[in-house]
Structures are given as structure tokens and as C-alpha cells.
Amino acid sequence: MASEAEKTFQRFAVLGDSSSSGAEINNKNFSKLCQDCGITDGKTVTSADVDTVFNKVKAKDAGTITFQQFTEAMKELSQKRFKEKSPDQGLQDIYHLMEGKNPATTSGFYQAARAGAVDLLTDNNKYTSSHHERLDDSGKGTAGREETDNSGYGRAHKAAGTYDKKN
């Protein structure tokens, strides 16, 4: 039977990769696991440390690590995170941090962005005064517009239309 740490490892390993068996984890998900489980604390263990350790334990041309390599990485990180403890005790403490953890999905992390920003811009109830009249009920910007003059001169230009005329 898989340990709690191994179950957590598998949950993060398959994150964002439906073809993954959960036996190996990539660097992105490894970093996320360290972040979500509180292994990275920004002081003793930083994201740079996590990347360094990942690259150190993985096979030379591999993009993922196995649970066994993961254990090696965690032993090394535990020495930074829990300096005063033995490697085995530090590893147990890290596994304790991982217990029962699931990948945290922050809004928009793995989901497509919502169209809410566009909705706000085209909701004519939010506009005031003359701008309110520029949008029709469907949010299209046609109602209330005046015809524009494409002559190339500004609206109040005194010499508008005199370019071709000789003095």
C-alpha cells in the first residue's frame, strides 16, 4: 500500500497531465507540490532551491523524477528546511507536511479565463451621461454615434475643404 506521501506525490504527478500514470512527476508539478505543502517557505527553502534539487536528482536527460528520486530530493530539502534534524527525521517532517494535501487550484491556474472583464466593458448600465448612449442594449457600440467627417480636417477647422481651391 502506498504511503500518504506517495499518494500526495501521485496526486501532484498527474496534475495537468491526463496521460500521466502518477509514477513520475515533472519539475512544474514538483515545484507546486513543494509550494502547496509548505515545504518551500521563501526563507530556508526557496523555489530556486527546489529547482536545483530537482535537476540534481533527475536522470541526465529526463524531464521527470520517480518517487525514489523524489525521496532523495526531499531528504536534501529537509536538510535546508529542518537544519537541526537528522536526514531521516527531516524527511519524516516533510512527509508530515505532505499528508492529505491536494493540489490547490487557484482561480485561473488551470482553468480558462472568464470573459468577465469584457462583460464589464460592454455593460451600458455602468456608463454615465453621453457615454451611456454609445452602446445599445446588446452592448454593441453603435447607438448614439454621430456621423464622422472623414475629410482629414478637425471638426472646427477654419480651412476645411479648401485644399483644392486656389486663392
UniProtKB/TrEMBL annotation:
Region (Disordered): 127-167
Family: Belongs to the TPPP family.
Protein name as catalogued: EF-hand domain-containing protein
Basic and acidic residues bias spans: 130-148
Compartments it resides in: Cytoplasm
Name of one Pfam family that matches: p25-alpha
Record InterPro entries: EF-hand-dom_pair, TPP/p25
GO molecular function terms attached to this record: tubulin binding
Native species: Otolemur garnettii (Small-eared galago)
Superkingdom of source: Eukaryota
Keyword annotations of the record: Cytoplasm
Cytoplasm keyword on record: yes
GO CC entries: cytoplasm; microtubule
Coiled coil start-end: none
Classification of source organism: Eukaryota, Metazoa, Chordata, Craniata, Vertebrata
Any GO BP annotation: positive regulation of protein polymerization
